[in-house]
Every structure is written in C-alpha cells, then in structure tokens.
Amino acid sequence: MTGLSHIALLVRSADKAAARLKELGFSPNPPDVFEKGKVREIYIGDYAVNSSLLLLVEPVKKTAYARTFKKSGYGLHHIAVDVPDLEKYVDGLYDSGWLLHPWSLEAARTFNTVYLCRPGLGFVIEVQKRERGTAPRLIERIALPLSKTAGAMVAAAGLADAVSAAPEAELFFSNKRSIRVAELLG
User: What percent of the chain stands above pLDDT 90?
Assistant: First the structure.
C-alpha cells in the first residue's frame, strides 16, 4: 500500500506561488533554503495535520532541480509516496515500465528512499520507506496529461486513486478547491 506524501512543483518563484495559494485560503509554511542557498522550498500543509502536502521548489542556483528545469521546464517535479516495505514495493514494479534512477542506490542506503523514473515522462516518483499515517489528504488528487502507457505506470505504482489523466495539470484539494498547476509556475 502506498500513501501519498507530497507533490513537488518546480516553480519560478516559491514566494509568488505561495502567495497565490494563500489567496485560496491555504497557509504556506515559512520558506526553507537548502544546499547552501541553491534551493528554496515552501510546503503548503502540515504533516501533523495532513498527508499529501504540496511542496513548491524554486531552484536558485545550479542543482539537480535546475538541471530538471533546463530539460523539462517548470511544472511537476515529483510525486512522493510512503511505503512500509521499500524492497517489496520495488519488487512489485517488475515489468511496470518504471526504472530506478541511479541516485537510488545511495539514497536507499542513506535515506530509505528510491526514485522511479522513465525518460520522457516528465516527473519522478520518490518512494520513501515510512509508515503511512492516517491523516487526511490536503491534496485529494492531481490531474496530469498522461499517455495510456504513463497512466498504466502510475497505476502500477499504486497511485491510481491520486493521479488521473486530463488535458492539463490541475491540483484538487480536500477543501473542494482546485487550481491549474500553470497558475503556480510563475
């Protein structure tokens, strides 16, 4: 079983995206700066209250996020899920089309995390070994422009209830609000 941890968007300005979400009634957390000032992040939501938070990521300087932006532009960066047994989960993905990102070898040892990827898909799934909480979701689901193959891969990853196919990317929140992802990209 997978539990949706968070959805990360790569944005031009985390502050501007957070301000837009504040207009919709959400309470952004204070920004965090990582990798010696190279990445600025703002979470929307609180893990003490909700699961499936929104993470706004602004690449400030050259980082893996900046390289992703150069390849794919702003938009969905990753969907993070929690699983109780990382090895069993990954074994269950055999023949699903997912590939393990090379960084997964080190991340599995250090952080109990692996990254699922597929060239051309446009986003990564971050899989964390963590007991799933019972907190209600902040984000109920995300709609994405997915091919039939990508939709099958998302379902194989256990995300069929959280990710659906649609002409454009949109976030649907538990408070019955929704926002097109393009509105947050800046």
Answer: 70
User: For residue 48, what pLDDT is reported?
Assistant: 83
| Range of 18-27, 60-69, 126-135 with top mean pLDDT | 18-27
Range of the domain at 15: 3-185
Q: CA 147 to CA 149: how far, in whole Å?
A: 5
Buried b (16+ CB within 10 A) or exposed e, 146-179: beeebbebbebbbbeebbbeeeebbbbbeeeeeb
Q: Which DSSP letter does residue 136 get?
A: P
Asked if 159 and 140 touch (Cβ cutoff 8 Å), the reply is no
Q: Give 93-109 pLDDT, tens digit per residue.
A: 999 999 999 999 999 99
In whole angstroms, give the CA distance from residue 89 to residue 125.
12
CA-CA distance, 97 to 75, in Å (whole number)?
A: 22
Residue 67, class by beta-carbon neighbours within 10 Å (0-12 exposed, 13-18 middle, 19+ buried)?
exposed
Three state DSSP letters for 43-103: EECCCCCCECEEEEEEECCCCHHHHHHHHHCCEEEEEEEEECCHHHHHHCCCCCCCEECCC
The enclosing domain of 167 has a CATH number of 3.10.180.10
User: What's the structural domain count of the chain?
Assistant: 1
